[in-house]
Amino acid sequence: MIEVSNLVSTLITGLLASIAFLFLVYFFWKLYDRPSRRQIEVLEEKREKFKETKMWQAVEAEMAAEREQAEALAIIQRQKAEERARAMPPAAQLTKNALAALDSPTEGAAFLERFKPTVSEVQEVAVEELLETEIIDDSDVLLAPELVEVRQDAGLEEHEILQLLLDDDEAIEAEASRETEIEASAEPESEPQEPVTKSEQDALDDADVNWQGKDKRADDDTWAVGW
Hints:
The protein has a domain at 15-87. The protein starts with 5 loop residues before the first helix and ends with a helix. The chain is an all-alpha fold and 227 residues long. The chain has 7 helices and no strands. The radius of gyration is 69 Å and the shape is flat.
């Protein structure tokens, strides 16, 4: 076992004891520590002062907003008053004084003549429209050798038109049936085919082979001569 010196053991014991005493002191401090009346009054004063500060800040902000709004309205009213003042005509006495200073007449027809609007003379311009008249000559119609008379037949009744249409349909059907009968009678009867014997078939095949051989030799001779 590792031997521990007396100094080390003493230090460890003192550390553990101090930790235990700290917890004990904290417990009793929390248990019996209470603020005094003076301390409570100071805390209440600080709380009330904080509330008053917040309230006055809100009041000042509201007053600043109202002041800005009042200034904006005053500016608008001032602008409107200036516009109305500019729109009003000047006083008659001021006008007379200004004209008198310029040695201009202030009364009578000459004074009124100065304020009459100038009317520009309107010149009437005559516009001549050149209209070309096209003359249509119909004399060539009178030079025709004979006049053509248009015949106007009386119209048919509705039942007469239907009867004519039915007659046309019956005539077309009769013509179609007649053509069918003629085509059927014109077709020749198929003749019975006699059976071909094996010897006759072989003879026909040999003749066909000989004929093809002759054609091939004739083609070869023609090609050789041409070459």
